[in-house]
Structure formats: structure tokens, C-alpha cells
């Protein structure tokens, strides 16, 4: 394993910000840590970089304990949330900084800087002032700077956090391609699940300093570990349920579940696609409380009598108006009983 | 941290302790009652009374004259505003001796007013008050005006939209925002005038004497060192109290005011009222600030063929053992040495203060933070502690082993450095604190060792602040009079000491030479200031050094 965390713990004023975290990252792997703000993601990166001392536990790089290794000798890269480009240096000065620190000769440096700027899509930007760069360009320079000394592990703190949506979606694809081509080992943190799923080979969901779930994007998406993860991923139809065979008793009535689901008192998740609209006389009777246009489909907020709201996805053509009455049935294929 | 602490212990705390011993200990017995005893002497009470009321009067007069100036420079846009702002700042960096001689040339015997109308003010308190206003005009304009320029005019507009008249809007919105700055400026002026030495020494004659002048008189003329020591203790306590109040108002001033770019708030004058105000301020600046200096220069030139200047090069002038012009070289080399010491000590102190942890939790003030604040205040102490205290302390503390520096040339630069260090810290600290800690982290992650981080990240950002600090320290050292006059060797005076010595002698030639020497001193100081103004950023264009330096230079 390239990186290993063993029961890593950091406390601020007695409160555990990292609480006995175990994590492994293999070489060439891209791991995304996903979690709401305050869940300890940034502290995790700072602890690995050596910027934040551990209160207990260990950080291993290539199997070696890093406790006694100062920040500048760990050989890991960190791209800061707001980039932290050096304002008094131009683009080349920023990208070459790490190379200078590692004692690379001047002419070699210039060649490497040019190569990196090509790589991040800013050829010829060497002499530009940092202040004149747009947000996306700054992000590219910060990436080039972090990549320059060829760190064995590259860490990204909210790499695309400050950019607007369309740029973010384009850059995430570029990053994924770039890291794949270079074989870089990456540990990124983000609060945006779309970003994490698009970028990562493996996703780690954090909550209150602990790891709530780890797995491939598909695994996490299909089987959230608990109600917290499900809600954090954007699912609203999460309720307590009593599972008996292939049906669950819920506030919404009887909901069919896939065969082989865990039995007893559980948390039940119904994906919006699993909420099917039927004529009002059939199924659970609901009123349409709100509808939001999502581009490819419409999200409906349905209010049953005496039960929590339901979120349903349906095509624009067939979507009922606000205030209309409708019936609801559930699709077992889109229903998950959480462990 | 250790170096600046040791410096202050040896060159400040130890001399002050020596003063206390000298004043309160006799034959190994402590006599705290001596304070009351000295306080009750009629001559001392007279001095205390005069010191206090002239400081109050000077402060009131300065506010009255300078507040309209603060408004005009903050809110009105007119051609030459930048240049005039610099001009207004000149008096503050001028040595007190220059200010004294300039006013002597204006209102003294044979001065301009005397020639024109037969008016002489040098025997009245008005000369002192006017000189104090001259000196402190910039303090008010910069402190209050600096804040005023940054206040968002839309706040007042919001009040107007809610039905307030212009006067009511000003009273309810702008005035409360300005009040802490006005209070801080007033306290600063009070402090400077309370401890006024050079100006009163030259313009006060035998009649008027502040605490500082009295300490000097007791030491140098009456040789009553223990009375001088007791007076110094009294002064020390008074200044401590003033500084405590000042620190409190400054902390209140930090309360969250949303400031905007000053360039956006200034408007062309509109209406008769604003034009009248502008003209009034310009006339005040011309009469009060420019005229005295012009007269000083003119007086120095009255002898045919630059006679007074040529007399300065004459080694047989009779007043000193060397030609008076040698004082220029002496002053410059002393000031250079003092600047080097002040920058090293002040820079180290500022760096140490920056690295101390600041509390993370919001409400509670941690011990470390309290320590930092305490040290902040401690560093400011010599600023108000009065140069005379420093000079007197050096005189009685550093004259015997293990620290016998009486014969050493380094004594004067040391004293001047002590006075200059607070300026260095004040300039450096905000800039160092403004360096984003994560930039240092970014450099460390890229492989920079701690020392490398300092060189690559901190140094480029503070380089300019360092130059500014050095400039301040240089100007302060050059004009330093109160401490130097105690310890400068008679055969090798500095410029201010030489000027004061010449002015104290009868005869036109001495008078003219004093004017000439004073003019030279003024020119050197003004050149230093102009270089500083070039270094100081004009606007917030520089994210690293911009605003903090500007604020640090204002009080």
C-alpha cells in the first residue's frame, strides 16, 4: 500500500475531528473522500501532509511511519482549496517552486515547466501574473505546481470547489484522463457527490470524523450503508420499515422489496425512479405539492395523507400539475433495504 | 523572541529600574513617600499643572484645526490632493528641534511677525500651542481621515432613504463610526504634547516648563538627580495610564466596520459650503504648515553669499570643538547604526509575535493571546515613555560595570534604536500577520524547509515593509533629541543637539547658523519621507503589503 492510515485521530479542544480513521490507498488509485463540511475531510489531508500532527494513530507512506518526517520531506503533493498560488511570482515561478526546492537545474526546470503547462492546457502562460488568471486557469496552475515535483501521492482539497458548474464538469473529465495517463495516485476530498463519482475509483464517505462507507462509486450509489449516506447522496425517500419476506411495512403502506433483503426493523430507501404514478384510485393516494424541472425529467414532491413526503421522478410529458391528485406504487427493483 | 526581550531588559527595564532606585531609595531604605513629597512642592505642582493644561489645550486646538482637514482629504477630490497629503505629513516626521526653530523664526524675536507687525509670541504659550498643532496635524488627518475615507457613503444614504436629514444622517451614522478614531487620535496627540520636550525647550523660555523639560533641567542644570528620578517615575505612571486608555480605544476601533476602497468615496467639491471648507483647509495648511518652514529656510539665507552655511564649516566657531557641519556626518552615522539595531530587534520581535499561536476559540481569550497583546503594549511603551526617560536612564544606569558604555559611541545609537523599535514593530507586524499561513504550508508541501519558507514566502512580502520600517527608524533616529541630549558627547553633537546648542547662544551668527543647520536637518528628513511615500503603496493594488502598511503607518 502506498498510503496507510492506522487509527489516525486528531482532536481540537477535546473534540475528535478525525476519529480512529483507517484508510488504505494503493498505487495508481484515485480515491475520493466525500462528506459534508466539518466532517474532517480537510484535516485528513493535512494530517497526511504533516501539516496537522496526529493525537494518536499513524500515517504510513510506502509502509514507513511518517511521525518523525517533516512536511517538506514527505514527498506528497497538496493542492489547496483556494489554490494558494504565490502572488508575487508569475505562473512559471509558481510551477517551478517545488522543482527549485528539490534542487533541479535551471534549464531543466524551464523545460519541465513548459511540459507541465502543456499538460494542464495553458501552453505559453509562463510569464503571466497570477492575479491576471481566471478561476479555472488558477486551478490549472495550482495543479501543475502540485504535479511538478512528481509527488508519490497527490492530494486535492476541494479541487473544483470554486468554479462554476459547467467548467467543473469539463475539468473533472480532464483530471480523470490526466491522472489515468500519468498513473498518479490521488486522494481528493470534496463535498460534491457528482465530482466524487466522476473522478474516483473508490469513494470514502466521511461523517463526524469517521468513515461511514467505502466502496466503488457504483457500490456506494446502489447500496448506501445507512440513512446518513443515503440522505447525503441526495435520496429523500428514506424511512424506518419492518421487513417481512419480500415486503416492508412503512408509513407509505406495504412496499415490495427485492428477494433476499435483510429482515426485521430496517431503514428502507426508495429511489425516485422507483415511485411510479398510477391513477388516483389505485395505490397510495397523494397530492402533488411541488414539481421541479430537471432537464431530462421532472422531480415531483408528493404529499400522502399522514405520511412523509415522497420524491418521484417522471417524464415531462406525463407529469401532473401542482395540486393534482395521483396514486403511487413502488418498484421493488429501485428499493433497497439498508443494513 | 529571546533577543528582543533581552534587549529591552538591558536597555529599557534596567535603566528604568535604576531610575526608580535613584529616586526612591536612600541609604538602602525605600522611601515611597518621596513621591508625595515631591508632588507637594509648589514648583513641581506648577510644572504638572502646566504640562497637563497645555496638553489638553494643544489637543483641543489640534482637533479643531485638523478635523476639517481630515474631512477634506478623505472625502473631497481636488487636483494635487496626493501631493498635499504628503506635504501635510511632513511636519510629523520633522525633528522637534526643527519645529521649534521654525516657529522661533516665525513668531520669535526678530521673526517674521515681529518684523511685519511687531508681534512676538515666543514668550507666550501660544507659540508652544501653535507648534504642537503644526506637529500633530498629520496625526489627526491620517488617523481620522484614513477611516473616514473608507466609510461606505451608502450607509449615510441608507439613513437618508429612511427619512434622516443630512445633519441627522451624519450625526447618527458617520459620527458614531468616527468617534473611536477621533478618540484614539486625540489621545495620541495628548500623549505627544504631554511628553513634549524639544518644542518647549526651545520656545518655552524660562517661563514654561513641561515635566520632560523639568526632568532635563533638574538633571543637567540643578544636578538634583533624585528629584529628576521621582519626576520620571510620575511621568512613567502618567504615560502608562494614557497608553492603557489608548489600547482600549484601539481595540474598540477594531469593531467590525465595513470599509470600502477610499478611491471610491472621494467626490469633487459641490456647493458653496464644501468649496469654503476646501479653501479654508488649504489656507490653514499654507499658513500653519508651510509658512513656518518657508520662513526657516528664508532666515537661513539672510546672510550674504550663504554666509550662515559657510560659517557652519568653520571649526573655530567657538560653540563646539569641531565645525558644526560635522554634526551632519555624526547624525547620519548614528542614525544608520540605530536603524540597523532597530530593524534587527524590531524585526525579530515582530516575527516572534507573528509565530505565537492565536486562539482558535471565538470568545475566550487564551493565555497566549493575552501574552501577545501584553507584549504589543510593552513594545509601544518607549514610544510614549518619553525619550528623556530613556536618556536619563542610560545616563545613570549604564555608567558603571558591568555595563559602562559612557565612553562608547554605541550609546547614542542604542538610545535612538530604543525609540525607533516601536515604529519598526508597528510597521512589520500587520504585514507579517497578513501573510496567509496556508501559503507557508503550500511552500512546505512543495518541499521547502522552514528556513526556505521564510526566505521564499515571508521575505518577498515583507521586503517593502522592512524598507519602510527602516525609513521610519532612520527618520526618528535622525531627529531624536530628548534622549540624545543627555548622552551625546559635547565634542561630537548630533544635528538636533547642535541646533539647540546654537539657538541657546546669543548673537546673529549663532542664530543664523542654527537656522541653516535646522534647514539641513529638515531637508534630510523630508527626503527620507519622500522615499517612504514612494515605497508606500497608493492603493490596495498589492494584496500582500498594501493595506496593512498603509494602516501601520497611521496610528
TrEMBL record, chain A:
* Gene Ontology MF annotations: ATP binding
Protein name per its UniProtKB record: ABC transporter ATP-binding protein
Which UniProt keywords are present, listed alphabetically? ATP-binding, Nucleotide-binding, Transport
Q: Determine the domain of life of the protein's source.
A: Bacteria
| Record's keyword annotation contains Ribonucleoprotein | no
Q: Which Gene3D superfamilies match?
A: P-loop containing nucleotide triphosphate hydrolases
In this chain the ABC transporter domain maps to 3-233
Thylakoid found in the keyword field: no
Q: Which InterPro entries match?
A: AAA+_ATPase, ABC_SmlMolc_Importer, ABC_transporter-like_ATP-bd, ABC_transporter-like_CS, Mo/tungstate-bd_C_term_dom, P-loop_NTPase, Transp-assoc_OB_typ2
